[in-house]
Amino acid sequence: MSAALGNAGLLIALVASSVGALATAVAIIGGNRRALRQAPIYAAIIVGGATLAVIAMQWALFARDYSIDFVQRVGSSTTPTLYNVAAMWSALEGSILLWVIVLALFTGGVALRFARRRDDELVAWALVVMYVVMTFFALVSFGPASPFARGATVPVGFDGPGPNPLLQNHILVLFHPPLLYLGYVGFTVPFAFAIAALITGRVGEGWLLETRRWALLSWGFLTIGILLGGWWSYEVLGWSGVWAWDPVENASFLPWLTGTAYIHSVLVQQRRGMLRVWNLSLLVATFALTILGTFLTRSGVINSVHAFAAGEIDGYLLGFFGIVVVISLGLIGWRGDALRAPGRIDSAVSREGAFLANNVVFALFAFIVLLGTVFPLLVEVFQDRQTVVGAPYFDRLSMPIGLILLFLMAVAPVLPWRTASAGTLRDRLFWPAWCGVAALAIAVVVGADRLAPLIAFMLGGFAGGAAGRQLLLATRRQGFRGLVGRANGGMLVHIGVILIAVALAASNSYTHSATLTIGRGERVEWAGHSFEFVGVSTEVTARADVVMADVLLDDSKVYAPAVTTYLQQGMTVPTPSVRTGFTSDVYLTIDGNDPPATNADEVVLRVFVKPMVLWLWIGGAVMAIGTILSALPSRRSRRPTDPTSAPVLETQHG
Amino acid sequence: MFVAVVALLAIGSTRDAGPLNPGDRIDSISRRVACPVCDGESVFESRNPASEAIRAEIRASVYEGTSTDDEILASIASSYGGKVLLVPSSSGFDALIWALPAAGLMIGLVGLWFAFRRWRAEAASLGLPSQDDYNLVDEALQRHRGQRDD
Questions:
Q1: Complex ipTM
Q2: Is A630 within 8 Å of A489 (Cβ atoms)?
Q3: Which domain holds residue A12?
Q4: How far off is chain A from B97, nearest CA to CA, in Å?
Q5: Same domain, A90 and A188
Q6: Average pLDDT for consecutive 10-residue bins of chain A (654 residues)?
Q7: Are residues A212 and A138 in the same domain?
Q8: Number of A:B CB contacts under 8 A?
Q9: 8 Å CB contact between A603 and A551
C-alpha cells in the first residue's frame, strides 16, 4: 500500500515536472501566453506528488512495512519515533527522496512568489530550469534509487536493524540533513534564474535582485546545516573534534565556499554592473558542486576507483553534472558580448577591490578543497597506487587563507566604493585596529602562545572592530533599524564568522588531552581539574544496553560518558559526556571496545580540555540571525549619484 | 601601535610553553596517520581496533622517549606502507597537491594585476569629466534633495 502510494507520488512528480518543462518551453518559444499562464500549475502538482511520496515513506517507516526493501534496511520496531522520522534520510534512497521534497517545495515557492509574473519570459524560463532539475531527481528517485522498491520476502516476526546507531543517538540528526539540503537545493533557484537570464538575454541586474533573498537564505541554511553537522560530530563521535575534512564534509563545504564568494561579488554587480560572467560562473559552480559532491560521496569513488560501478546512481549524477556544466558554459559563451562589463574598477583599495580579493581567495580555497578531496582519485588513476589526503594537509593550507580572510573582513567594511584616500582609511581603521591590539594583548595575558593563533586573535579583534564600528554607526543613526538590511545584517554575520574563527583557532591550538586510569573512589587531578570515578551504572532497554562510567568532575557534578551496545546491529557506540563552559569544555569518553564491567575497580578515561568550543555554536547563532536581518529590506534609499550599475536598459532587450 | 603589536607577538610566540605533555604529543602524531582500514579517518579519530593498535604503537614510542615525531611516523609508514600518512609528500606526483594551489594563487594575483592595469588604461583614456557631466550630477542631486524634502 505504502509502496504503491509512494511510487504513484514520485511518478506524478516525474510526469508533472517533465511535461511542465516541455510545455512551458514550447509555450515561451511559441509565444502562447495562455499556456504560459498555466506553467505554475505543474509546480503545484509536483509539490502534491512529492508530499504524497514522503507521507508514504514516513507511514511505511512508522508502520514498519517490511514489504519495502528500504524499510527492511533502516526500519526497526525498537527505534524511537523521532529517529524513525529521521530514518528516511539515513540511507541513499531516502536522502534522494528528501532532496525531491525540498526541491519540490522550492519549485512551488518560486511558482507562488512569481505567480503574478508568470507570463514574464524570465520567470517562465526559470520555472523550466526548475522543472528540468526536478525531472532529474524525480527520475533518479523513481528509478535507480527508488525508496519504494519491493524487498525480499521476510519471515513472520522479522524486525529490521533500524538506522545506523550513530544516526539514532543524537537529536541533531533530525535537523542537520534537512537544513543542509535546504541549502544545497535552495541554490537551484538563483541558478535557474541565471540560466533564464542567459536564455532570454536579460543579463542585466534584474535577475540578481529577484534572487538575492533566495541565494542569501539558501546560503544561511547551508551554513547552519554545516555547523550543526560539526556539533553532531562533537557530541557523538567521541574524538572531540567538529571538522575532520573528510570527503563528505568537503562536499558540503565546496558549494558553501563558492556560494559565499557569490553573495559578496554579487554586490559589485548590483552596484557597478561588473563581474557578470564571474557571478554566473560562481552560481553554476555552486549548483554543479552540490551535484558533484553528492556523486563523490555517494558513489564511493573517492575511496577507490574500483568502487566506480558499485553505486547505481553514479552514472546519473555524473551525467547530470556534465550536462549542467556544458550547457551553462555554452550559454555564457553564447551571451559573451552582452555580458561584457560596461564599468571598471578604479582602484584596488576600494570596496569593489576588496570584494575581488575576497573572491580570488574563496576561489583558491574551493580549488584547494576540491584538489585535496579528489587527489587520491588522481593518484590512483595516473599512478595506480593508493594514497590518502587528510586533515593535516587541509589544516596547513586553510590556516593562511583563514588569516587573509580575517584581514579582508577587517579592512573591506570601512573601504568606500570606487577609491579610498589614505586619510579616510586611517580615520576609519583607527578604532578597529586598536580592537585588534586589545584582542592580542588579552590573548597574551591569558597565556596564549604560538604565532599563528596569536595573529588569528589579533585579526579577529581587528575584523570584529570594523564590523562593530559599522553597526554602531548604523544603530546610532537609525536605532534598531540599523541592524537590518544587506550591509548591516552582513556585519552581524561577519561577527558570527569571527567568533567561529577565533573559537577554532583556540580550540585547535590549545586542546589538551590525556588518558587517565582512575580507581573506584579515587580522585585524580589533571590540567586544573579533578576527576573521581564514582562507579558504573547501566541502562537496559529493548533497543540497547548502555554502560556509563560515572565521574565526579571538579567535585561538583557527575558526568557519565557511556558505551551503548545496539542489540539489533550488535554495534557498540561510545558517547562522550561534555561539560560545556564559556571558556572551555571538559570532554570525557571511555573506550567503546572495552567498556567497564559493572563492578570494575577502575576506569580508563579519555579526557580533553578544549577552550572556547561553545563560541562556535554562539557564532553560528549570530550568523543565522545576521542572515535573516540582511534578508530584510533596509530603509536606506539610494542616492542618484551613488556609483550605479551598468546601463541595464541597453542590455535588457539585447 | 605597530610597536605594541610586534612586542606582544614576540612575547606570545617566543614564550616557552614547556614540552608537550605525552597525551598531546600522541594526539598530534596520531592526527597525521590514516586509519589503515577505514575511509578517510585518522588514527586520532577512528575507534577501529586497527587504529587502536597504531595508537598503542605511538604511545609506546612516545613514552620510550628516544624518537622524534618524524622518526615515529617513518617507522609506522615502513610497517603499514606510505598510504597511512595523511600529509602527502612533496616529491614526485604528490608534489602536485602543493604546487597546484601555489600556481592557482599566482594565476589569481597575475589575473588581478592585468585586470587593474586594463581598467587603469581605460580610465586614463576617458579624460576628465566635462562641464555637462558636472551639470548632470548637480541636477540629479537637486532632484534627490527635492524628493527628500517632500
A1: 0.84
A2: yes
A3: 1-153
A4: 7
A5: no
A6: 93 97 94 87 96 97 94 90 91 92 96 89 94 96 92 88 84 91 95 93 83 93 95 88 87 95 90 86 94 78 48 82 94 83 78 90 95 89 84 92 95 87 88 94 90 94 95 87 85 96 93 90 93 94 90 95 87 91 94 86 93 96 95 64 41 36
A7: no
A8: 155
A9: yes
